[in-house]
Amino acid sequence: MQINPPSQRPPIIEQLRAESRGLPFRPAKKTRPEPTPPNPDDIRRMFTIENGNRWLELARREPEAKQLLGELWHQGELCMLFADTNIGKSILAVQIGESIARGQSIAPFTCQAPPARVLYIDFELSQTQFGLRYSKGEEDHQFSGNFFRAQYNFIPDPAPNVNENDLLIAAIEYKVNQAKATVLIIDNITCLRGGTENSAVALALMKSLKALKTEHNLSILVLAHTPKRRNATQPISADDLHGSKLLINFADSAFAIGKSTADTDLCYLKQIKQRNTRQRYGHDNVALCRIQKPGTFLHFQFEGNSAERLHLLTRTAADRRQLAHEIAVLAAKGFSQRDISNQLGIGLATVNRLLRYSDPLLTNDVITNDQEQYPDEKAAEPCDSLPGEGREGYSKLEIKYEERPNTEHPTPQVIQPPAITNDVMPNDPKVTPGVIPKPYWGMKTSAIDMALTPELLEHILQTTTRENSIRGNER
C-alpha cells in the first residue's frame, strides 16, 4: 500500500498519529509549490521583432510627443521631479498641472499640447492647507475645469493579505478612469514606495507605473525627495534621488529643484535625464526661479538662467563655516581665544575674526575687529599672530604687545614704548642721521627689534664705531 508523505497528510491525521504514540505533535513543514510553467501565449506576446527599417517606418507613424514643460517633460513620459524637503515641489507640481489643464505655457517652458484633463494625487496637503495656498482673504483662485485633485483618505486596517502598493495603484487607476485623465501627477512616491531603497520594491513599483502609463496612454509626473544630508558643494545629479537607482533608470526623464546658497529665496531647475530631446538646462544653464504669490495663486516665477556652480556652497565657504562653528562651540565652553588658537592650530587673529563671524554679539577688549584696526585689508591678512609669540606680524604705529605674566590664560595687552631720540648708525641710507624711525603701518617689527632700548642702541653704535676704527688701523 502506498503511504503518503507527512507533508501531504491532513494535519488532523498527523496530530492523531502523534497522540497515539505519545509524542508531541510537530506539523510538517510546507514544501514550496512547484513553479508554474510560462503560458505560451505570454511567451509569444512578450517581444515584437522587426528589422531596423521597419522600426523606422513605424516610428514615423507615431504622433510627435509634444512638450508639456519645455524640454523637461513630454507627452507619454514617466518623469521624476525630486528636490529637498520644503523647497516647493508641490507648488511647482500644481503650477505645472494647472498650465497643462489650460494649455498655457510657463515661461520659459513651452506647453505644446492642447488643454488636457489632469489628475493630481495629493498625499501631502490637507484640504485646509491646499486652500491657504490658493486663496487670499475671501478671494479664491479659479482653477481650470480640467484640473482634478484627489486627496488621500487613510485606511487604518487594510486587509492583511492585500499588498498596500497594489491597492494604491488600483485606486489610482480607478480615479484615472473616473476623471478621464490623460496626465497624472503623484505627490509623492514615498507614500507608494514601502521602502524604495530595496531594489525589488522599486522595480515592482516602476513596473506598475509603466504598465499604468501604457494601458491608459498617460503622461505621468512623480515627485520624490533627495537625501536629508545632501552635499551642498556638489552639483545635483541622478545619484541624489532618494531610494534605489532603479527609480531613475526606469524613468523616461527627470529634473530637480536646487536651492541657491547665494540667495536664500532663489531656487533653480536642472535637467537630469532626457530621452526625447537634448539637454538644455544642464549644469551650465540652470533655470532660476523664486516662489511668489502676488494674488491668490502660489507659484514659481522664473528669472533667467545661470551656471549651477554659482549657486553651490564653495569648499572655502563650507570650511570657513565649519571652522567658525567649532570656534563658537569652544568659546561657549569657556576656552580663551589663545586656547582655541592652540587647539585648532590657527592664528589668534583668525580666531577673533571667525568668532565675530559666528556670533556678531561677541566682543573682545584686546583685539579689535580687523576692518576697524587695519585700513588696508590686504596688509592685515598676514597678521595671523602677534609679535612676541615667536612669529613675525604687522604692528601698528606706536603700539607694542606683551603677555601678562602669572595668569592662567595670558592675553596680549597694549603698552606704550619710551621716547626714542638717540642717533642711529650712519651707514643706513634709508634714515636721516640723528633720528631713529618710529614704527609705521605696514612695517615688520620682530620681538628683538621691540626689545632695543635707546641705551642699548647707543652702546651698539659706539662698539661698532670702535671696531671699525681698529680694523682701519690694522689695514
Radius of gyration: 38 Å
Percent of residues in helical segments?
Answer: 25-40%
Runs in which pLDDT lies below 50 for 5 or more consecutive residues are 361-418, 420-447
In CATH, what is the homologous superfamily of the largest domain?
Answer: P-loop containing nucleotide triphosphate hydrolases
The CATH architecture of the largest domain comes to 3-Layer(aba) Sandwich
Query: What's the helix-strand series?
Result: HHHEHEHEEEHEHHEHEEEEHHHHHEEHH
Main sheet overview:
9 strands, mixed
| CATH fold description of the largest domain | Rossmann fold
Let me know the number of strands. Answer: 13
State mean pLDDT (0 to 100 scale).
76
Q: How many domains in all?
A: 3
Shape label: extended
State the strand order across the main sheet: 5-2-6-7-1-8-9-10-11
Number of helices: 16
CATH class label of the largest domain: Alpha Beta
Strand content: 5-15%
Distance between termini? 137 Å
What class, by secondary structure content?
alpha/beta
Describe the structure.
By secondary structure, the chain is of the alpha/beta class. It has 3 domains: 250 residues, P-loop containing nucleotide triphosphate hydrolases (Rossmann fold); 52 residues; 91 residues, no CATH class. Helices cover 34% and strands 15% of the residues. The strands form 3 sheets. Strands 5-2-6-7-1-8-9-10-11 form a 9-stranded mixed beta sheet, with helices on both faces. It has a two-stranded antiparallel sheet with strand order 3-4. Helix 11 crosses helix 12.
